[in-house]
Design a protein that fits this description.
The protein has 538 residues and is an alpha+beta fold. It contains 21 helices and 14 strands. The chain folds into four domains: 166 residues, Nucleotidyltransferase, domain 5; 95 residues, Taq DNA Polymerase, Chain T, domain 4, CATH 1.20.1060; 139 residues, 2-Layer Sandwich (Alpha-Beta Plaits); 117 residues, DNA polymerase, domain 1 (Orthogonal Bundle). Helix 2 links the parallel strand 4 and strand 5. The longest helix has 40 residues. It binds a DNA duplex (12 and 16 nucleotides) through helix 10, helix 12, strand 10, helix 17 and helix 20. It holds the Pfam family DNA_pol_A.
DNA sequence: TGACATCGGGCG
DNA sequence: AATCCGCCCGATGTCA
């Protein structure tokens, strides 16, 4: 394995060969236009390459545009963010002159050819030095293997995220527009409501005797409801559903459609869908737990009602796969809880709990497990806890301990070593309440974060399998990842490869399980569907 | 006019 | 009084 570091210099790019100790070796100066050619040549060579760079978002989009796919990289920005908080990392080894610069480094802005390139704070940082520090931290870590796996998985995720934006999710604007027209009426002129909303609005105003009511204003709506004799504390849908009043159904319907219009209406189509693709911007490591975030287009909350518009190209298919009950399975694995892993042997973990006689019904199982992971102590889920704690002592013990540690103000960590942030100052008068809230956060952090690590390993392995499956051509000409949603992937593939893709998705899931939990027997069964449209899955 | 907070609701 | 974890986003409302 050869490591080549790319850095920007004055008017040119430098490709630096790194020695085994991370020291800078031979260096090649490249004009910006020659970088892609250089990368393609080395990537296609006999020696595997790991590209080391400050930030994947600052390098990879241009390479992809030039048709260059990269097998592996080290993303120093993401690695730094993890190591900075990890209890497995010696902070003094990570400290350097430009540490504050690395701390503050944000993902690169999307390249805009219309703008003159501004000064990039990343150009003030020395990637060779930062890489050596990160290597030193890994070498000295008591959990070197786990931490190294985490950094590799995070970097691989950065490659996937860039590729997802590059290829985009196939999106039929015509299908989407037809759907909108069916639900809302024809697209109205600027500043006007569609006919269906207009009709519902009049109905609501009449029912509450408020001819000027704007239901989009919670304050105004609350006053009108209370004036109508409905003693509600807020205007959430769940609250409104409990009310018996002739205006409520129209109000709820108005809210639902108004939300669709605002979030995923014609304006969304105009902004986010071009050339038949929804190009979401994914942000790896964007959530404290290690989950991805997204920016723009609400990529991680595409409503099911518009998913029929996500449709594979002619002659292509989607392979949609999601993990059933990822987080409870991860909890069984990371705690080494044999009884819970036994329940997880079933395709439906909750059914497995019923079959083992732990709980009476599937609903009880779900309620209890979710309560254990989120910190629900009241009502049904709270009543389930003693029984779960007896039956699954290690699993429940792990989340309880994470909660107690959080309440004491301590850092908790995921299986691979991502650390939780330190709590801020708790206001004295709210001490207990804030403390318990932080405990619920740390309780959930260890499970959600380790789930994210499983998903990263799944993605990374799947990405490589898909590439090998494809034969020739660019990423978008082969089976490729088209969307990722915490515990679900959408792969876009030529129809004749769909079955092999489905097999690859399953194989990648078992690889991920082995990477995280070794020989401990916890299963990660997938629901896999080969479909024309995302909406046809599950 | 822009910055910021709050609410409600979409996703996992 | 009483529904738990993490996000993103648009509309509204307040303030400078």
């Amino acid at each position: 394995m050869e490591r080549i570091l790319l850095r920007r210099g004055a008017g040119a790019v430098e490709a630096v060969e790194l020695g085994a100790d991370g020291a800078a070796g031979r260096s090649t100066r490249l004009h910006a236009a020659a970088v892609a050619g250089f990368a393609a040549e080395r990537e296609g060579g006999a020696t595997p390459v790991r590209w080391v760079w400050d930030d994947t978002t600052r390098w990879y989009p241009a390479l992809l545009t030039a048709g260059v796919r990269v097998e592996r990289c080290t993303d120093l920005r993401l690695g730094h963010a993890i190591l900075r908080r990890s209890p497995f990392a010696a902070q003094d080894l990570l400290a350097g002159e430009d540490t504050p610069g690395w701390d503050a480094l944000q993902p690169g802005p999307p390249p805009d050819p219309a703008l003159f390139p501004l000064a990039d704070p990343a150009d003030l940082l020395d990637p060779v030095a930062e890489h050596r520090r990160q290597q030193a931290v890994l070498a000295a870590s008591p959990q070197r293997d786990r931490l190294a796996l985490l950094l590799a998985a995070e970097s691989s995720g950065a490659l996937v995220a860039a590729e997802l934006t590059h290829t985009g999710l196939p999106w039929r604007a015509d299908v989407h527009a037809r759907l909108l027209t069916g639900l809302l009426g024809a697209r109205p002129g600027a500043g006007r409501r569609p006919a269906v909303l207009e009709r519902l609005l009049e109905e609501v105003r009449a029912a509450f005797g408020a001819p000027a009511l704007n239901p989009d204003s919670p304050g105004e709506l609350l006053r009108v409801l209370q004036h109508a004799g409905l003693p509600v504390p807020d205007t959430r849908s769940w609250t409104l559903e409990q009310l018996d009043h002739p205006g409520i159904p129209a109000l709820l319907e108005y809210r639902k459609l108004s939300r669709l219009l605002a979030a995923n209406g014609w304006a969304w189509l105009d902004t986010w869908v071009r050339d038949g693709r929804f190009r979401a911007v994914f942000v790896p490591g964007g959530v404290v737990t290690g989950r991805w975030a997204s920016s723009g287009g609400g990529a991680l909350s595409v409503p099911t009602v518009v998913r029929p518009a996500a449709a594979a190209d002619e002659g292509w298919r989607f392979v949609v796969a999601d993990v059933a009950q990822l987080e409870p399975r991860v909890l069984a694995g990371m705690s080494g809880d044999d009884a819970m892993a036994q329940a997880a042997r079933a395709a439906d973990l909750y059914a497995g709990m019923v079959a083992a006689g732990t709980v009476a019904t599937r609903a009880d199982a779900k309620l209890g497990i979710l309560g254990a992971m989120y910190g629900g102590t009241r009502g049904e889920s709270g009543r389930m806890m003693p029984r779960l704690a007896r039956r699954y002592p290690r699993a429940i013990g792990l989340v309880e301990e994470a909660a107690r540690a959080g309440e004491r103000g301590e850092v908790v960590h995921t299986l691979l070593g991502r650390g939780s942030p330190l709590p801020g100052v708790w206001p004295h008068e709210e001490g207990d309440r804030a403390r318990r809230a932080w405990g619920r956060f740390t309780r959930n952090f260890v499970v959600q974060g380790t789930g994210a690590e499983w998903a990263l390993c799944w993605l990374a392995d799947l990405r490589n399998r898909l590439w090998r499956l494809g034969g020739e051509g660019d990423v978008e000409a082969r089976p490729h990842l088209a969307f990722f949603l915490h515990d679900e992937v959408v792969v876009h593939t030529p129809e004749h490869l769909a079955d092999e893709v489905a097999e690859a998705v399953r194989a990648a899931a078992s690889t991920a399980g082995r990477l995280l939990f070794g020989a401990f027997p916890v299963d990660f069964p997938l629901d896999v569907a080969v479909v024309r449209s995302w909406a046809d899955a599950g």
